[in-house]
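so ive been stuck on this for like two days lol. basically i have the seq below and the ligand is nicotinamide-adenine-dinucleotide, smiles is in there too. i just want the complex predicted, nothing fancy, no docking runs or whatever. if the output looks off dont worry ill sanity check it later, just need somthing to start from for the group meeting slides
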Amino acid sequence: MAKEIKRIGIVGAGFTGKQIAAQTALNDFVVDVYDIDPKVLEGAEKYISGVLKRKNKMDSIQKVSYYSDLDKALEDVDLVVEAVPENLELKKKIFSQIDSIAPVHTIIGTNSSSYPVSKIESAVKRKDKVLNLHFYPPIPTRPMVDIMAGSETSQETFEKGKQWIIDIKCEPLVVKKECLGFVFNRVWHAVKKECLKIWDGGYADIETVDTAWKIFTGMKMGPFTMMDGIGLDVAYAVEMSYYEASGDPNDKPPDALKELVENGDLGMKTGKGFYTFRRRRKK
Ligand SMILES: NC(=O)c1ccc[n+]([C@@H]2O[C@H](COP(=O)([O-])OP(=O)(O)OC[C@H]3O[C@@H](n4cnc5c(N)ncnc54)[C@H](O)[C@@H]3O)[C@@H](O)[C@H]2O)c1
């Protein structure tokens, strides 16, 4: 049976956007990748081609195109995944641009970690064709995607989005009604919140918490290492969005986390966060 969704646009090819593009290309879709920053686009091409080569999918390399022009990138896509930084006004602006460029049938999904698409949908006319499509990078080891409707999303859009998630070999995590944090991010938020309180209150060392988590869950990394990997700027922004949504002082991330972010200690990407990382020397 012919797939209804065949061509995917990725808007924002940073940390998550390039992984979504690679997973999509690996599963035989045509992919059009756009980023505002040409250097990011170059990095994305290197990453995606590398993944496809390692998986022996040489044919798929030709099916991925890279654009610095949004109009060209979205000319013929059936589904767009927006993965620009976590800023509501920026996401609305990008949704509005996509809405004015993409074909009328195109579905627009956001990979936002915290904003329900109902907060973004006012920026588009096609309110029946929007979705939250939230990934959990690294996608190869965490192949699952939250899928959540906006206030006017049609059942057809939802089903098509769900089928696409299955087609790219991920598990769809269906959110039955709007929920801050979707399915698993909500669980993960509760874990992070308590870990941060233990650290901020001086109750135990980060190493102790991470070790306990690894023994208990059998996972290779603890919550503090994972937050360093995600980026403390992203982690702080996400925790703040929960706090802003609930207004519950218990949800407020500790000021000490904000201080790390303000000092530029953002985790693995800057070499220091909760932990200090040895930088790879350039050859
Ligand atoms: N980092 C994670 O682990 C993670 C996990 C799930 C979801 N997300 C969500 O994915 C989104 C992107 O996060 P990320 O970590 O990939 O960020 P990132 O900073 O690595 O990538 C964002 C990209 O968007 C590009 N960009 C900025 N403005 C743009 C514009 N106007 N048009 C096109 N591209 C533009 C940037 O150049 C950058 O390459 C956020 O909404 C975030 O909450 C992140």
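Residues 7-174 form a domain with the Rossmann fold fold (CATH 3.40.50.720). The chain has two domains: 7-174, 185-262.
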